[in-house]
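Subject: Predicted fold for Nucleotide-binding universal stress protein, UspA family, 321 residues

User T.R. writes:
Posting the sequence so we have a shared reference for the thread.
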Amino acid sequence: MELKDITGKSILLGLSLYEDETHLVRFTQSLCQSLRAKLLLTHILKPFHYYAYAGEAPVFPLDTYGPIMDELDEENAQKLLSKIQEGLDVESDIIVKRDSLIEGIEEVAEKGKAGLIVLGSNYSNSVWQGLSTSISLMRGSSFPVLVVPQGCDQITKPDLTIYCGDDLTDSCNSIMSYARDLALALKADHLLHYHIHDMSEQDIKRITDHIKNAVILGKMPEEELSKVETYRERVIEQTLEQLKIRYERLQGAESLNVERNVLFGEAAEELTKLISKDDKPKLLIFGKHHIFRPESLSLGRLPYPTMLELGAAVMVCPSDS
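User M.O. replies:
I've generated the structure tokens; pasting them so everyone works from the same file.
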């Protein structure tokens, strides 16, 4: 994926219309301005069931009024979206559609030739149901999905930091390129390129103990790596060099301020610690392979605590196969 997949295209903003979403509209408008994209103001009306069950037989007490209620719902959504549209400084369209949330958003994105889907963390009636919708889209969508929590209202602030995780595999190549291009387009302060080693302090100590035993048994020469601190420092040094080499392969990589970091431990926990130290605006970019495996979330609690507690916007992009 390259940034050209978004630049000049449409950005779909899914609005729940249940509460004040001013921060979300401001955030997406600033994104559209930077990427020269049209904004698709979208509201999905949930399917309305006109029937109930009396035993096994369906009854239709609202059957006659169903079309009227549909029309009223759509008119109300159109009015609310029109009011939002009046305050915009970017080209925009309004789409109201009755469908299930996920299928409806995906269909609008396809028909509107969107390059990005933006949602709030409370897209549905409740925060957790909203996150469920967002996570489901992150997992299954062919589009990049950006989730914006309360407290984020602009993406073009000069002190913005873009976080790009790298598992040091080819699956991350397009994600690095995308993060770099987005950081340049948004004039971010810098890109933080990081790797998290799945090793705890106990794991490192076990490794160094094995080295010590090998030295004692005469199977290895005297080795400074038998010391925990030395071993950790050597791993950090080599990983930083790997990150540097991988990033510098990107065309135009020299035009952006890049900071590199190496962490140890459980990915979600360590990244949350890292983010909590940064009180500036931040955007986290992941490849889908970072977050999801066929049967589970590979990063555990992410992005729940990061989005809700730390106010970080999170984008998940389709990864290289």
